[in-house]
Amino acid sequence: MNTETLRTFCLSLPEVTEDIKWGHDLCFLIAEKMFTVASLDSDGHCISFKCTPEKFAELIEAEGIIPAPYMARNQWVTLQRFDAIRDPEIKKLIRKSYELVVAKLPKKTQQEIASGKKKAAAKRRSR
């Protein structure tokens, strides 16, 4: 996996948007909440995402995966390189991160995302 294939995958998930934050991090969001962050610099990490507490404990035992700086208390991990785990597993973990974030959103927002109405409503408001 690389940044472009990561971007393609994340944007394929329902209602996902992207944004550059902190000058060099490509953030993928659902309802303005981050679920995956990819570094556009080579500063020792390439991708971070949210996990369940159990998966967090498991992943940080693997070589090339560390607790995410500033976000470890929220069960985020950082892959220091894309080949720390295989691509299908990365996609599975990112999808789970997306689902964990969606599950914390208000029920109305969850329903809008599920029905695909969120983007349509945002477009109407921006006119």
Q: What are its keywords?
A:
127 residues; alpha+beta; 6 strands
Describe the structure.
This protein is an alpha+beta fold. It has one domain: Aspartate Aminotransferase, domain 1 (Alpha-Beta Complex). It is 42% helix and 24% strand. It is built from five helices and six strands, in the order αββββαββααα. A six-stranded antiparallel β-sheet has the order 1-2-3-4-6-5. A hairpin with an 8-residue loop joins strand 5 (65-67) and strand 6. The protein starts with a helix and ends with a helix. The model is unreliable at 120-127 (pLDDT under 50).
Reported by name, the CATH topology is Aspartate Aminotransferase, domain 1
Number of DSSP strand runs: 6
Strand content: 15-25%
Kindly provide the radius of gyration, computed on alpha-carbon positions and rounded to a whole number of angstroms: 15 Å
Q: Specify the number of helices.
A: 5
Report the structural category.
Answer: alpha+beta
CATH class designation: Alpha Beta
Mean pLDDT score, rounded?
A: 89
Helix content: 40-55%
Low-confidence runs (pLDDT<50, min 5 residues)? 120-127
What spatial order of strands do you see in the largest sheet?
Answer: 1-2-3-4-6-5
The largest sheet, given as strand count, sense and whether it forms a barrel, is: 6 strands, antiparallel
Helices and strands, in N-to-C order?
HEEEEHEEHHH
Per the principal axes of the C-alpha atoms, what is the gross shape?
globular
Could you say how many structural domains there are in total? 1
Terminal CA distance reads: 37 Å
